[in-house]
Structures are given as structure tokens and as C-alpha cells.
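Record 1 of the preview.
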Amino acid sequence: MTKTTTQKPVILFVDDEEPLRMMFTAMMPEKLTDQVDFRVAADGTEALAIIEETLGILIGLLTDLGLGVEKPDGKKVAKVALDAGVKHIAICTGSSEYDKDQLIPEEIRDRVRLILKPYDLSTLMTFVEEAVQSST
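->
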């Protein structure tokens, strides 16, 4: 795939639950959708394809930790995005029993944020707004 260079910046949300993907795009205010292209992926394979497609304009990634047994998981997706130069990355998990040190590999731990499910709208909005502000 070729690199995209003339489009709006992209924020990618990856979750295997369709209602959560729909919620993410639906909650974005018009002022942000005018500035950013919000993309969603249902699994790690789809996410990796979008990362490749949006090299250079992908400014943020929120990925669920568990994305299916036979697909790349959220840690793999986050690592690929970091290697591609994406600066704002969050790994999302439904378990509050683990901390960042247990869930996220040491080599990427200091460069990603941990967000717990169920998603809190203000936490997601803060993440998105920080990514947008840092890209301008």
C-alpha cells in the first residue's frame, strides 16, 4: 500500500466489539470530525492494514488489549504503531486487576497509556484532544 500524504490526520480505534466501535465514532463532536478522520478496526489484522495505509498521518491509536486468539493482539498493534512513529497510543483493557507493568511489554511501557473499560467518555475525549493538539 502507498503512504497517504494529503488527507486529514487519522485516529484509529481498535476493538472487537462493534457497539464500542460505533460509540467511538458517534461520540466525536463535529469540531473534531472536521479536523480528524476517525477510523475503526475490528481486529489486529485490520488495524495493521490501516496503520500501513495511514503512515505519516496516523496521530493516535486506541487499541483493545485482547483482539482475538488468531489475530495480532493490542500489544502487537501498539508496537507496530510506535515503530511507525505514532506518538499517542493507548492500550485498553477491561480488567482492573492488572497494572501497566503487567499488561504492557517493558520496551513500549513508557510510551503508551493504559485505559480501563468500561470506557469513560471524558478519558477518551482527553486522549483524542491531546493527539489532535500535538499534531497541529
